[in-house]
Each structure stands twice: as structure tokens, then as C-alpha cells.
């Protein structure tokens, strides 16, 4: 297969972790006889130093013509510490999602057996956790009208959703559940918010078209508690933009590090793959950033194009790095290996399934049918 992949390193540790993903994809090229064309483009705060915009037109054009996008991270302390900044790097990410129609964020949270000791939660709580969050990505309060009074003392943010916006991601979630454990949990705040009541009404109606799928609704406050008490009860979580943002970060607690969790942002024609950790500017250039979330995001990219064996080869190599404790400082108490070494180890251990008897082990996968 031939693929053109846009590389948006972005800010902070983004370029460092993205470089490790590219190593792994090049190993896939060689091992499985594919051809990937990688094209880099500026994005985020680093792009603003040249163009004044976090998403230059040239970068957007590249993303529109590419088969897929690999993204690193976005954000810089100069903007985080300046509440008066009129333009922020994160606005480029919101615009990119909107322009490409990336309406569904897919975030798997799966416990690797080798990482049970890394979780701050008890083993009996997190063992066998395997869930995926479907977060609506281009609507809701993040994109709604925002107002600030002239005297700066009153502000508002509009949370707006249409039935069609809700329906398209709901169908993706139910289709994913059909290939997993056949359960969908809608997370909302329908006891207070009108937008949540529309979510509940729309999704409840859609659920009737999937009679083989178990369907339940939870308020966001209860769902947040339940994720910490018993994450194994969840299979597919479906929710809006803001609630999905919160629950995804909370899910990183289950594994004990945000540096382990990949994600995909997909639309009808475009797809972007990224770790959902931040830019971590304090670690920039120190060779301590965890590249695993980025590397697993590249596995999701392969899975998106039906290259399941290739995706499993990456996951198996990541699993081997866990077993051998070739990991960065944030996990398993290790301080021996850096970003580059971990990336080298994983890429050098990518082999075909015939050469690795553990590659199809159900315990090491990202989860069945993560990408639709």
C-alpha cells in the first residue's frame, strides 16, 4: 500500500515523540513492503512565529490532500501564561478539526498486563480494562458563540448541538460496539442541560436500530466516579466534546501515565492520529518524553487502512518494551532509557506475525475494531 502521511510535529515534545512513530512506520514499510511518503509542515505555536497563525494555509492544504495525518502536540507556555493573548496555538487544532470534518475522536483505554503495577489504582480494579471513548469533536461548547462583557466581568459560552451532529457519531459508536462487547454508555448531563437532553433523546432512538447492543445512560458526574471504581464495566462510551475531553484525561489514570494513550480523529474523508497528551514544554529536548502514545497512534493509523497485521506488529513490539521494561521515566519506575532509545527498541522489534508467536495475543491489542 502507498500512503501520503502529513507530519505535524507541533510544539513541545511533539516533534520528539512523532519522530519515534516515523521510525516504526518505516520499519513497517521495510517488513511488509509498503510505501509511505512523509511530508512535514509547521503547526501550532511554532507556526505562529513565522506566519502569525497556528494553522498556515499551506499546512491545511497538505492535510487536505494527504491520506492521513500524524500529529505530535500543541501548546506553549508563552501563551498559557498570557491570558491576554488573542490567538492561541490550540485554535489551530480546533480549526483543523473543523476544516477537515474530523467529528469523531476515538480514544481506546486498554490495560496492558505488564502495566498493572504502574496504575495508582488497585490491580483488581484496573485489570482487564478495555474501553473506548467516542467523543464528538467539532460541536458543543468549544465551538459555540463566546461573549465577554465590555467591563470584563461577565462571560458566556454557548453549547449547541444538532440532531445530525449527534447521530453521525452515535452510529459510529454503535457499529464499534457490535465488533466489541456489545455495550454503549451515553454520558451526558440530561438532568440539567438542554443540549444533553437532545443527546439522550437522539441516541435512545438510534439505539433501537441496534437491538443486539446493550445501551445505558449515565450522568457525567456518576460516569467519572464509575470509571475510577470499576472501569471494566465500560465497553464503548459515547459523549459530547467537553465531557469526552474530561473523561479521556481521567482514563489516563487507569494506566498511570498519559504518555501511553493513543487517539484518532476521523471524519467522512479525513483522519488524524495523535497521542492525547499535551505538549509538556518542560521536557522539550531532554529526551525523557514517553513516545508510546504516539507510536500506538501510528498503529491506529494502520488499522484505519485495514492493515491489521501491521498494526498488531507495532502493538506487539510495544508490549515487548513493557515486558523488558524498556520504558521512559514516567512509567514502571525506570530512569534508564530515553525517548530515542525506546523508539529504537520498538521499531527494531517490529516483525511479521510468523516471527512472533505473541503478536495475536488478545491481551496486547488496542481493542477490536477501534477504527471504523
Automatic annotation (TrEMBL):
Catalyses which reaction? (2R,3S)-3-isopropylmalate + NAD(+) = 4-methyl-2-oxopentanoate + CO2 + NADH
- UniProt entry keywords in alphabetical sequence: Amino-acid biosynthesis, Branched-chain amino acid biosynthesis, Leucine biosynthesis, Magnesium, Metal-binding, NAD, Oxidoreductase
Pfam families with a match to the protein in the record: Iso_dh
Q: Which domain of life is it from?
A: Bacteria
Checking InterPro entries in the record gives:
IsoCit/isopropylmalate_DH_CS, IsoPropMal-DH-like_dom, Isopropylmalate_DH
What are the Isopropylmalate dehydrogenase-like domain coordinates in residue numbering? 4-346
Enzyme Commission numbers on file: 1.1.1.85
Cofactor remark: Binds 1 Mg(2+) or Mn(2+) ion per subunit.
This protein's pathway reads: Amino-acid biosynthesis; L-leucine biosynthesis; L-leucine from 3-methyl-2-oxobutanoate: step 3/4
Give the main EC class: oxidoreductase
Question: What does the function comment of this entry state?
Answer: Catalyzes the oxidation of 3-carboxy-2-hydroxy-4-methylpentanoate (3-isopropylmalate) to 3-carboxy-4-methyl-2-oxopentanoate. The product decarboxylates to 4-methyl-2 oxopentanoate.
What protein family is recorded? Belongs to the isocitrate and isopropylmalate dehydrogenases family. LeuB type 1 subfamily.
| Assembly notes | Homodimer.
Name by which UniProt lists this protein: 3-isopropylmalate dehydrogenase
Amino acid at each position: 500500500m502507498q500512503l501520503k502521511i502529513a507530519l505535524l510535529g507541533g510544539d513541545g515534545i511533539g516533534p520528539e515523540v512523532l519522530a519515534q512513530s516515523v521510525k516504526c512506520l518505516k520499519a513497517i514499510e521495510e517488513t511488509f513492503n509498503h510505501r509511505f511518503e512523509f511530508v512535514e509542515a509547521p503547526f501550532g505555536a511554532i507556526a505562529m512565529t513565522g506566519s502569525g497563525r497556528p494553522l498556515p494555509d499551506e499546512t491545511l492544504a497538505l492535510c487536505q490532500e494527504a491520506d492521513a495525518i500524524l500529529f505530535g502536540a500543541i501548546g506553549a507556555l508563552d501563551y498559557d501564561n498570557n491570558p491576554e493573548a488573542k490567538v492561541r496555538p490550540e485554535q489551530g487544532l480546533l480549526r483543523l478539526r473543523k476544516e477537515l470534518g474530523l467529528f469523531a475522536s476515538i480514544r481506546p483505554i486498554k490495560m496492558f498486563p505488564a502495566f498493572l503495577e504502574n496504575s495508582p489504582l488497585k490491580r483488581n480494579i484496573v485489570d482487564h480494562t478495555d474501553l473506548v471513548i467516542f467523543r464528538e469533536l467539532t460541536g458543543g461548547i468549544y465551538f459555540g458563540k463566546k461573549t465577554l462583557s465590555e467591563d470584563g466581568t461577565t462571560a458566556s459560552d454557548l453549547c449547541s448541538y444538532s440532531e445530525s451532529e449527534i447521530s453521525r457519531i452515535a452510529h459510529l459508536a454503535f457499529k464499534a460496539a457490535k465488533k466489541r462487547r456489545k455495550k454503549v454508555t451515553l454520558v451526558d448531563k440530561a438532568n440539567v442541560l438542554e443540549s444533553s437532553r437532545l443527546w439522550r433523546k437522539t441516541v435512545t432512538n438510534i439505539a433501537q436500530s441496534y437491538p443486539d447492543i446493550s445501551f445505558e445512560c449515565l450522568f457525567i458526574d456518576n460516569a467519572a466516579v464509575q470509571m475510577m471504581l470499576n472501569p471494566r464495566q465500560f465497553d464503548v462510551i459515547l459523549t459530547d466534546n467537553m465531557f469526552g475531553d474530561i473523561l479521556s484525561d481521567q482514563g489516563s489514570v487507569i494506566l498511570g501515565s498519559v504518555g501511553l494513550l493513543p487517539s484518532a480523529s476521523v471524519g467522512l474523508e479525513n483522519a488524524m492520529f495523535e497521542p492525547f497528551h499535551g505538549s509538556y514544554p518542560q521536557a522539550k529536548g531532554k529526551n525523557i518524553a514517553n513516545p508510546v502514545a504516539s507510536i500506538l497512534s501510528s498503529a491506529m493509523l494502520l488499522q484505519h487502512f485495514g492493515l491489521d497485521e501491521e498494526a498488531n506488529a507495532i502493538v506487539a513490539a510495544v508490549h515487548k518494551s513493557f515486558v523488558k521494561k524498556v520504558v521512559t521515566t514516567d512509567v514502571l519506575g525506570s530512569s534508564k532509557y530515553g525517548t530515542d532509545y525506546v523508539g529504537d527498541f520498538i521499531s527494531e522489534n517490529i516483525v511479521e506475525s510468523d516471527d512472533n508467536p505473541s503478536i495475536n495475543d488478545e491481551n496486547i491489542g488496542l481493542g477490536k475494531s477501534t477504527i471504523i
